[in-house]
Design brief:
Strand content: 25-35%
CATH class of the largest domain: Alpha Beta
Radius of gyration: 27 Å
Shape: globular
Bound molecules: dioxothiomolybdenum(VI) ion
Distance between the termini: 54 Å
Number of domains: 3
Largest sheet: 7 strands, mixed
Structural class: alpha+beta
Mean pLDDT: 97
Number of helices: 17
Oligomer: single chain
Length: about 725
C-alpha cells in the first residue's frame, strides 16, 4: 500500500481555497427566494397572535409563513423520528402555537432579497401567553429522573467507605454550542416538475432525505438531499435542523426555490452540549490501586425528549477497580433538546474522571502518570472482555517523553518563570472505535479511472481524501485517477457521518468493493487465450499500476484494459457493503494521553496553554496529515472547553445572553500555541480488515482535564467548574 499511511494533502484543498467548493448557502437558482426565520422571545407558553401585516407591506416580501398558514405537515411523532432522535416527541418547526424554548422558530419571512427578509423579520409582531419556565439545572436537581438503571460492579458504596484513601468531589460543565464556521443553511432548488433538490448543511443526507419526505408527505423520488461540503459541524448537523424544514416549507408554499440561512444567534437554538454536574468518588489503596469508582452525572434534557449519552462509565473501560457504580440523571428544562457535540458524553465524563484521578494522585503523593499505570486495565470491565488493541501504555510513555514530563516538580506552585506560574498536567482520553454498515459503488473504466460513490459526508474531516487514498491503493491507481462522489442521498447507502466511524466504515466498504471489481477483472482476464493468470485465485491477485497481478508471482499479470477488452466492456461497476464484524468479544476503543503546559499570571490569573502533546493510539492511521489536523482540532476544542466556552442563560427570561461569537468565546489563534500530535503504532487485525479506528473525536477527550490539572499544578488551585476563567482563579483560595 503506497497511499494508505502516507501524509496526503486534501484532494479537495484546491477547490476549497479557490472557492470552487460550494456550501449549502452558495447554490443558486433562478428567482431564488430568501427566507429569514423569526424566533421566539419567550421560553414557554403559547403564541396568541402573530401580526404579519407590517412585514408584508415591505416591498419585496412575498409571504410570511407561520403555524397558521404553513403547508401540510405530518401529524404523528413517528413521522418526525429520524435515525438519531432520542426517546420522546420530536420538535416540529412552525407546527403549532406551542413554545418549547426561547429561540425556536415561530415564523418564516420569504422575500426576493436576503436583506429584505431579514429586515421584514424584525416587523413580525408575535404575542404570547407566557408560562413559568425552568432553565436552571442547579434548581431542577430535585426533580431529576433516571432514564436508565445505574451500572454496578460489586458494592461501590461499601468499598468507598472502607477505602484507605478517598477522593470525592463534584465537577460541572456549562452548556456549549458547536459554533462551526459555516452557518446552518439550506438552499432548496425547485426543479421542473416540482422535484426538490435540497442543499443542506448536514452530516447525513440520507437521514435528512428520509425525514423531509416523511414530514412533508412526499414521494421518495420527489426530494433529494445534497451536501457536498460542510464547513464544520461537530455534531450540530446530525439531526435535521430547522433551517432545512423551513426552506422546504417555503419552496412547497411558493412553488419556488428557497434559501434559508440562520444567523449566528439563531444557530444557538439548535442542539448543544448539555450542561452537567458530576460527582466522582474514588476509593484507593495506599499503594495507588482502585477499590471503588463512583461516577454520577446530572445533565440537561428538554421537556419533550430525553437526551442522554454515556458520561459516567468510562472508568470501567480504563482503570481496574473491583467495585464501581455509574449513574445518570436527567433534568427537564425549557430549552431545546441537547445533542451530540464532539465525543458526546466522553468529553464531559472524562473531564470529571481525569481531574478526579489527578486529585487522587495528589492525595497519594504519586505521579499522575504512575497512578494511571498502577490502575491500568487490560480488560474492559464494563463488558468483561479484552480489547481488540490498546496501546495506551505507549501513549503515556511516548507522550511523556515528547513533552519532557520528567522535568515536572511534584509540588504545586513550585515551577515559575518571573511572574508566571508554570504547571504540567496530564490526562487520559478514550473514545469508541465503531464501524457502521456502509455501501460503496466503484466504477472502473478501461482508461484507468475510478469513480467511488457513497452517500457519506465530509464534514471537513478529510473523507474525500482518505476515500481517494484507500481506493487508489485497492485499485492500483494514482490518486489523480480516482474521483469521489459523496454527500448525495441518491448514492449508495451510508449512515450519518458521526461517532468517528466514517473512516473505518467507508474505508472497509471501499476495500470490499474493490475486491469485487478485482474478482470480475480476474474472471475476464482468465478468458484471454493462454492467460498469464490462468488458474490464479481471487485472493492471490491485486490491482497494481493498471494491471491485474499475481501476488505470489508478480511476473504473471494482465493489463486491466486487456481484461475489459476481452469481456467487451469499457467499465466494471460494482456496489458492495461492509459492516462491523463486532461479535461482542472484544472492546473497541481509541486511547490517548494528553500532556499540557500552562503559564498562569500570578496576579492577573490569565492562563495560557503554551504546550500540548496529544499521543493517540487509533489503529492504522490512513492519512497522518489529515488525522493530525483532526486531533489538533479536537485539542483546540478541549482548550476551549477548559478555558473559554460557555453558553450563559438569563434565567429570568430563559434565554441565552451570549449567543454570538463576540461573547461566546472559542479559542482563536492567539490562544493556541504549540500542539504536538503523536500517533502510537497500533496494529489491530481484529477490529476490521484495514485496522482502522477513527480519529474525529479522540482529540477533545481528556484535553480539558489535562489543562485543568496543569492549572492546579501551577497554582495549587482546583477549579472544578468549567470554564476556568480568571475570576474563578483569582477568587479561589489555594488548596
Ligand atoms: Mo459527532 S458529535 O458524532 O458529529
Amino acid at each position: 500500500m503506497t497511499h494508505i499511511g502516507t501524509p496526503t494533502s486534501r484532494v479537495d484543498g484546491r477547490a476549497k481555497v479557490t472557492g470552487a467548493a460550494k456550501y449549502a448557502a452558495e447554490f443558486n437558482a433562478d428567482m431564488l427566494v430568501h427566507g429569514c426565520a423569526v424566533t421566539s422571545t419567550i421560553a414557554k407558553g403559547r403564541i396568541t397572535h402573530i401580526d404579519v401585516s407590517e412585514a408584508l407591506r415591505v416591498a419585496g416580501v412575498i409571504d410570511v409563513l407561520t403555524h397558521q398558514n404553513r403547508p401540510n405537515m405530518a401529524r404523528t411523532d413517528r413521522s418526525y423520528k429520524e435515525d438519531v432522535a432520542p426517546p420522546g416527541s420530536p420538535y416540529r418547526p412552525l407546527y403549532d402555537d406551542r413554545i418549547l424554548h426561547s429561540g425556536q422558530p415561530v415564523a418564516l419571512v420569504l422575500a426576493e432579497e436576503w436583506e429584505i427578509a431579514k429586515f421584514a423579520a424584525t416587523l413580525v409582531k408575535v404575542e404570547y401567553n407566557a408560562e413559568a419556565h425552568a432553565t436552571d439545572l442547579a434548581l431542577e436537581r430535585g426533580a431529576a429522573f433516571e432514564p436508565s438503571k445505574p451500572i454496578t460492579r460489586g458494592d461501590a458504596d461499601k468499598a468507598l467507605a472502607a477505602a484507605q484513601v478517598r477522593h470525592d468531589a463534584e465537577y460541572s460543565l456549562p452548556i456549549e454550542h458547536h459554533n462551526a464556521m459555516e452557518l446552518h443553511a439550506a438552499t432548496v432548488i425547485r426543479e421542473e416538475g416540482g422535484k426538490l433538490k435540497v442543499y443542506d448543511k448536514t452530516q447525513g443526507v440520507m437521514n435528512s432525505q428520509k425525514y423531509l419526505v416523511s414530514v412533508f408527505g412526499l414521494k421518495k423520488d420527489e426530494l433529494r438531499v445534497l451536501s457536498p461540503y460542510v464547513g464544520g459541524a461537530f455534531g450540530s448537523g446530525l439531526r435535521p435542523a430547522f433551517q432545512v424544514v423551513l426552506a422546504v416549507m417555503g419552496a412547497i408554499a411558493l412553488k419556488r426555490s428557497v434559501r434559508v440561512v440562520l444567523t449566528r444567534h439563531q444557530t444557538f437554538g439548535l442542539p448543544y452540549r448539555p450542561a452537567s454536574i458530576q460527582r466522582v468518588a474514588l476509593g484507593a489503596t495506599n499503594g495507588g490501586t482502585l477499590d471503588a469508582v463512583l461516577h454520577d452525572a446530572l445533565s440537561i434534557t428538554s421537556q419533550y425528549e430525553d437526551f442522554q449519552r454515556n458520561t459516567t462509565s468510562w472508568a470501567g473501560a480504563l482503570y481496574k477497580s473491583p467495585h464501581a457504580k455509574y449513574a445518570h440523571k436527567l433534568a427537564k428544562l425549557d430549552l431545546a433538546t441537547p445533542g451530540d457535540m464532539r465525543a458526546p458524553g466522553g468529553a464531559c465524563g472524562m473531564y470529571a474522571l481525569e481531574c478526579a484521578m489527578d486529585e487522587l494522585a495528589v492525595k497519594l503523593k504519586l505521579d499522575p502518570v504512575e497512578l494511571r499505570l498502577r490502575c491500568y486495565s487490560d480488560r474492559d470491565q464494563n463488558a468483561d472482555i479484552p480489547y481488540s488493541s490498546k496501546k495506551l501504555r505507549e501513549c503515556y510513555t511516548q507522550g511523556a517523553a515528547a513533552f519532557g514530563w520528567d522535568k515536572r516538580r511534584a509540588a504545586p506552585g513550585s515551577m515559575r518563570e518571573g511572574h508566571e506560574l508554570i504547571g504540567f498536567g496530564m490526562a487520559t482520553g478514550i473514545w469508541e472505535a465503531m464501524q457502521m454498515k456502509t455501501s460503496v459503488r466503484i466504477t472502473l473504466t478501461a482508461n484507468g479511472h475510478a469513480e467511488v460513490a457513497c452517500a457519506t459526508s465530509d464534514i471537513g474531516t478529510g473523507t474525500y481524501t482518505i476515500m481517494t487514498q484507500v481506493a487508489a491503493d485497492m485499485l492500483g491507481l494514482p490518486l489523480a485517477n480516482v474521483t469521489i462522489q459523496l454527500g448525495d442521498s441518491t448514492l449508495p447507502y451510508s449512515p450519518l457521518e458521526g461517532g468517528s466511524w466514517t473512516a473505518a466504515s467507508v474505508g472497509n466498504a471501499i476495500a470490499v468493493t474493490a475486491q469485487a471489481v478485482t474478482r470480475e477483472l480476474l474472471r475476464l482476464a482468465k478468458k484471454i487465450p493462454d492467460s498469464p493468470l490462468k488458474g490464479a485465485k481471487a485472493e492471490d491477485v491485486a490491482l497494481q499500476d493498471g494491471r491485474i497481478v499475481s501476488r505470489s508471482d508478480p511476473s504473471r499479470a494482465v493489463p486491466v484494459a486487456d481484461a475489459m477488452r476481452q469481456g467487451e466492456v469499457d467499465r466494471i461497476e460494482k456496489t458492495s457493503a461492509a459492516a462491523s464484524n463486532d461479535d461482542g468479544t472484544r472492546a473497541r476503543y481509541t486511547h490517548s494521553a494528553i500532556f499540557a503546559e500552562v503559564r498562569v499570571d500570578e496576579e492577573l490569573g490569565v492562563v495560557r496553554v503554551t504546550r500540548v502533546v496529544n499521543a493517540v493510539a487509533a489503529g492504522r492511521i490512513l492519512n497522518p496529515k489529515t488525522a493530525r489536523s483532526q486531533v489538533m482540532g479536537g485539542t483546540v476544542m478541549g482548550i476551549g472547553m477548559a478555558l473559554h466556552e460557555e453558553t450563559l442563560i438569563d434565567h429570568n427570561f430563559g434565554r441565552y445572553v451570549n449567543a454570538n461569537l463576540g461573547e461566546y468565546h472559542v479559542p482563536v489563534n492567539a490562544d493556541i500555541h504549540d500542539i504536538e500530535v503523536i500517533f502510537v503504532e497500533e496494529p489491530d487485525e481484529i477490529i476490521n480488515p484495514l485496522g482502522i479506528k477513527g480519529v474525529g473525536e479522540i482529540g477533545v477527550v481528556g484535553t480539558a482535564a489535562a489543562v485543568a490539572n496543569a492549572i492546579h499544578h501551577a497554582t495549587g488551585k482546583r477549579i472544578r467548574d468549567l470554564p476556568i476563567t480568571l475570576d474563578k482563579l483569582l477568587s479561589s483560595p489555594s488548596a
